[in-house]
Amino acid sequence: MITIIDYDTGNLRSVANALGRLGAEYRITADPAAIRAAERVLLPGVGEASSAMAKLRERGLPDVIRSLKCPVLGICIGVQLLCRRSEEGDTECLGIFDNEVRRLRTEGLKVPHMGWDSIEDLRGPLFDGLDEGAYVYYVHSYAPQTNDTIARTTYGETFSAAIRRDNFFGTQFHPEKSASVGERILQNFLRL
Known about the structure:
Elements: E1 2-5, H1 12-21, E2 26-29, H2 32-37, E3 40-43, H3 49-58, H4 62-67, E4 72-75, H5 77-82, E5 83-86, E6 91-92, E7 97-103, E8 113-118, E9 135-140, E10 142-144, E11 149-155, E12 157-165, E13 168-171, H6 179-191
Parallel strand pairs: 1-2, 1-3, 3-4, 4-13, 5-7
Antiparallel strand pairs: 5-6, 7-10, 8-9, 11-12, 12-13
């Protein structure tokens, strides 16, 4: 069973709908036992880092997430929370990735970075079957530094579009909103 972690940060329905289109069985829950028993875990979300971390703490989930041995995919704010620290709200995060999340330094480009952009330097099983320069959908003002990077995007500066450490993966973009490319990424995750 695939578990989508519910910590009241929105975006759960679009991720659930994307999994449903793939025929995947899933549950949305904040129950630690159900999360630990999952075959795969998704940590999606939109919002602000300090309030999102506070919601994870309120539900007693930081240690649960850190302990997971199954494949885990953080999406948007979810990947940021998997990092060590975020500039947004000067927030200590989960520390699974030794990355700092910084506000985009875009040299005059609009922030938030919103819309379709390409991903480059694709490495690892999430990107099987995809070409360099594939387009994905973004809505963000912060992004992880380029540690543990398995895909990059340049928008004024280069940042981690996706990161990986052991069984933990994360995408700064929204695969559930990225049409056929995002569908392929989610299918690849479900095969891990």
